[in-house]
Write a structure and sequence with these properties.
single chain; 294 residues; alpha/beta; seven-stranded mixed β-sheet; two-stranded antiparallel sheet; 46% helix; globular
């Protein structure tokens, strides 16, 4: 999409998201019918991912999860765009960090933090984290190919105090903040698929051999950062909560891959409990070890 197409989208979005969320959920219900039935958005990918992840479930159980996922995906779409007009107070009413004291304790101890997130629940609303913490918050991201949408999403996600750093710039970001003595939580989305050239570790995840990024582990162990996880739980439509869980207080000297395996198994357990809130439309298993190393 070029500049003209983007600005048309921007104008429509700005006007439509003035509507309250209950009205936007009517659009979500309509989008569900369209992307699930006509023509169907990545239906086969979702179906295959679910079947491979839950071989013990029958066709009816898989179908129930599938439909719940698409409903949630449509809600996530309108909830993300609604950030255009949501105030700090409105966002904090709809997504709450249940134990901000853990981050405050780490900050008071003069610690930096690696925060592990995932595409679960409403990860976009987790940009509220700076509203609950006095720490500097930096999210590590992969820039979008479309420069207009990349700029739009960064502005949307930054309005609550979250800062963003490209993956390629993370080491420089850490060094700059440490030189300024700025205590920082670095947020990594843990469940993205690494490019073939960046695959250095495989583990079993949801019944499948899965490549995993090691960036969070490498940064944590290099600078002895604490490692916490944040996984959002959906309370009801439009309302979420999330908790900070300390996985490792100190990380220097830990066995290789123990940090990565720990947060992967944590995410796996959460997905197994309520699978409809994970992003099954992602091509998470597009790389196969046997194909790469043939």
């Amino acid at each position: 999409m070029g500049a003209i197409g983007f600005y048309i989208f921007f104008g429509i979005n700005w006007i439509m998201t003035l509507l309250p969320l209950p009205v936007l959920y009517l659009f979500s219900d309509f989008f569900y019918l369209f992307i699930y039935y006509l023509p169907g958005y990545r239906r086969q990918i979702v179906r295959n991912n679910l079947k491979n992840s839950f071989p013990e479930k029958n066709e009816k159980e898989i179908l129930i999860i599938e439909k719940k996922f698409y409903h949630h995906l449509c809600d996530l779409f309108v909830e993300t765009l609604k950030l255009t007009h949501m105030s700090n107070k409105q966002l904090m009413k709809r997504i709450q960090l249940t134990n901000p004291e853990l981050l405050e304790k780490l900050s008071d101890e003069d610690r930096d933090v690696v925060a592990i997130l995932a595409h679960y629940g409403n990860w976009e609303w987790q940009v509220c984290n700076p509203l609950y913490s006095k720490m500097n918050n930096v999210s590590i991201y992969k820039p979008l190919q479309n420069k207009y949408f990349d700029h739009f999403m960064i502005n949307l996600r930054s309005k609550y105090g979250m800062k963003f750093s490209p993956m390629s710039n993370i080491a420089r970001e850490v060094i700059n903040n440490r030189n300024k003595n700025v205590r920082t939580a670095y947020a990594f989305i843990s469940d993205q698929t690494p490019p073939i050239g960046d695959i250095n570790f495989w583990t079993n995840f949801l019944n499948q051999e899965t490549p995993v990024y090691l960036g969070a582990e490498k940064i944590a162990t290099k600078y002895d950062m604490a490692v916490v996880t944040f996984f959002v739980q959906k309370i009801k439509r439009g309302y979420y909560s999330y908790s900070a869980e300390l996985l490792f207080d100190h990380t220097v000297g830990l066995p290789e891959h123990v940090i990565t395996d720990t947060h992967v198994k944590k995410l796996e357990k959460i997905i197994q409990e309520k699978p409809e809130y994970w992003i099954w439309s992602h091509r998470r298993w597009k790389h196969k070890r046997e194909h790469i190393y043939d």
